[in-house]
Write a structure and sequence with these properties.
mainly beta, Cyclophilin, seven-stranded mixed barrel, 33% strand
Length: 286
């Protein structure tokens, strides 16, 4: 078992989320930065979809009650085991009683903790991802205990390393496709949308990131239609809202852009005040 000594700011169990339930209004959910979560599992040889801990801005402090192997990826939060600094992107054996802690945020916004074999928390609608009204808890709390498998007797640690390029943590370019209503914008609006930088407002969470700057909106509301993580909606006031992993499944605001999967990972690592710019993804040559 893993005992939570300090829960951090917003820490939750996440995997790849829930598919095939959107027709009944169930959000996808899942790791905000799937690239980092996938890599943490890859380091340990786990299935890519094994459940991990996602920590936002301020990490957790946890104690292991049985030996296992862990890996950290994503944001750099000055991670330590028993007050000794450890590296990200590396398989590390932990022993019973060891305490893993996360300190000052140095880069990025969300860090991921994977354990050998993944966390054994309840599965609801095909996923372990925490989400209010779907799972019992939305986040982990102090005193919680999370199950995981101990190291098998035949386990042999691997000393192989896997190179991970985390330059995307510093990127400010958000690649997008044209949204369903993009062509209803004037040429001037389209140019503004794709040329000026936008600032992430204080209104950002797992459901959506709202941008501070406005874009003049002369479009009529649309009939409520399907939306996805990465859909950029233009509100009547001219605010742009980028939907994230926990977003609703339908919406009535014009959908002017759609983020690529890589762009979602990049945006998930940004926080209030960060500046980003949209860039149309180039079409592949045949």
């Amino acid at each position: 078992m893993l005992k939570v000594l300090h829960a951090g700011f917003y820490t939750s169990v996440q995997d790849f989320g829930r598919n095939n339930h959107q027709y009944i209004g169930v959000p996808f959910s899942g790791a905000m930065d799937k690239k980092a979560a996938t890599f943490a599992n890859a380091i340990l040889g786990n299935n890519p979809n094994e459940a991990v801990l996602e920590m936002t801005m301020l990490g957790a402090k946890v104690q292991f009650n049985q030996p296992t192997v862990v890996a950290i990826s994503g944001a750099d939060m000055d991670t330590k085991i028993n007050n000794t600094k450890i590296l990200r992107y590396k398989a590390i054996v932990v022993n019973s009683g060891d305490v893993l802690s996360f300190g000052k945020l140095k880069q990025g916004f969300r860090a991921y903790l994977a354990v050998l074999g993944g966390f054994k928390t309840p599965t609801v609608l095909g996923s372990k991802s925490m989400y209010a009204t779907i799972t019992e808890n939305q986040i982990i709390k102090k005193g919680d205990a999370l199950s995981y498998n101990t190291i098998p007797s035949n386990y042999r640690p691997s000393f192989a390393s896997i190179k991970f390029n985390d330059d995307y943590l510093k990127s400010s370019t958000i690649e997008v496709f044209k949204g369903a209503e993009f062509d209803l914008l004037s040429k001037e609006q389209q140019e503004q949308l794709l040329s000026q930088p936008f600032t992430i407002s204080k209104d950002n969470n797992r459901m959506a990131y709202q941008l501070a700057e406005t874009l003049e909106n002369t479009l009529e509301p649309i009939i409520t239609s399907a939306v996805l993580p990465g859909t950029v909606q233009l509100t009547p006031s001219g605010k742009l809202i980028v939907l994230m992993r926990d977003c609703q499944t339908t919406g009535g605001y014009p959908r002017v852009l759609q983020l690529t999967e890589e762009a979602l990972n990049i945006l998930a690592q940004k926080f209030t005040g960060a500046s980003v710019s949209f860039k149309l993804k180039a079409k592949k040559k045949k």
